[in-house]
Amino acid sequence: MLYDDFYIKSLIKTVEDWPKPGISFRDITPIFSDPKGMRMVVDAYVHRYIASDISHIACIDARGFLIAAVLAYELQKPLILIRKKGKLPGKTISQKYALEYGEAELEIQEGSVKAGDEVLLFDDLIATGGTLLAAIELLTEQGANIKEVAAIIDLPDLGGSQKLRDNNISVFGLCAYADE
Ligand SMILES: O=P(O)(O)OC[C@H]1O[C@H](OP(=O)(O)OP(=O)(O)O)[C@H](O)[C@@H]1O
Ligand SMILES: Nc1ncnc2[nH]cnc12
């Protein structure tokens, strides 16, 4: 199904002053209750990555899991979960970070990637880029290469996608919300 930016944006709802005053929260959950929207988003990523040489798809807790799991299934690639602190059993490596509306800590299981792995890192949204940069640190610390970062929404005014590009990370955002 051909990607239609207008259609996808008609599904994404903006909630003002949530979870904190001053934040315009871009709610992607209606995409998942709309089979056409879900198909359109998944197809856009399948089309982009079907012929690429990615070896793994990594994704970030929690909204990043939703599309990444379907994409990993479609592309038949192993899926690596990067989770909020305290959720993964066994030996983990963790990384603290700041995001648009708070602070948190991400973890990955030790040995989930290795040198030579070509990872597509997926999250739902790029704001300040703090979350993705922390995830990149966890993956590269174990020797993996970040082939590309993909997200449904980019908020370029918050500087995250530029910060990633400044760190030589390739970034693919499906749709963008710049200051309207
Ligand atoms: O670019 P940043 O400023 O770091 O913000 C982007 C992150 O913020 C949201 O995650 P959140 O921690 O709210 O988690 P959730 O997916 O569990 O709702 C979103 O899903 C991204 O991961
Ligand atoms: N403005 C925003 N909307 C939805 N998720 C977010 N994560 C960080 N900033 C966000």
UniProtKB/TrEMBL annotation:
In the record, biological process GO terms are: adenine salvage; AMP salvage; purine ribonucleoside salvage
Q: How does it assemble?
A: Homodimer.
Q: Tell me where in this chain the Phosphoribosyltransferase domain is found.
A: 52-154
Name the catalysed reactions.
AMP + diphosphate = 5-phospho-alpha-D-ribose 1-diphosphate + adenine
Entries under PANTHER family matching the protein: ADENINE PHOSPHORIBOSYLTRANSFERASE
Q: What is its EC number?
A: 2.4.2.7
Q: Which organism is it from?
A: Marinomonas algarum
Q: What is this protein called?
A: Adenine phosphoribosyltransferase
Give the main EC class: transferase
NCBIfam families assigned: apt, PRK02304.1-3, PRK02304.1-5
Its pathway?
Purine metabolism; AMP biosynthesis via salvage pathway; AMP from adenine: step 1/1
Annotated GO molecular function terms are: adenine binding; adenine phosphoribosyltransferase activity; AMP binding
GO cellular-component terms in the record?
A: cytoplasm
Q: Which gene encodes it?
A: apt
Q: A Pfam family in this protein?
A: Pribosyltran
General function of this protein? Catalyzes a salvage reaction resulting in the formation of AMP, that is energically less costly than de novo synthesis.
Compartments annotated for it: namely: Cytoplasm
- What are the UniProt keywords, alphabetically? Cytoplasm, Glycosyltransferase, Purine salvage, Transferase
The family line of this record is: Belongs to the purine/pyrimidine phosphoribosyltransferase family.
| Classification via InterPro entries | Ade_phspho_trans, PRTase-like, PRTase_dom, UPRTase/APRTase
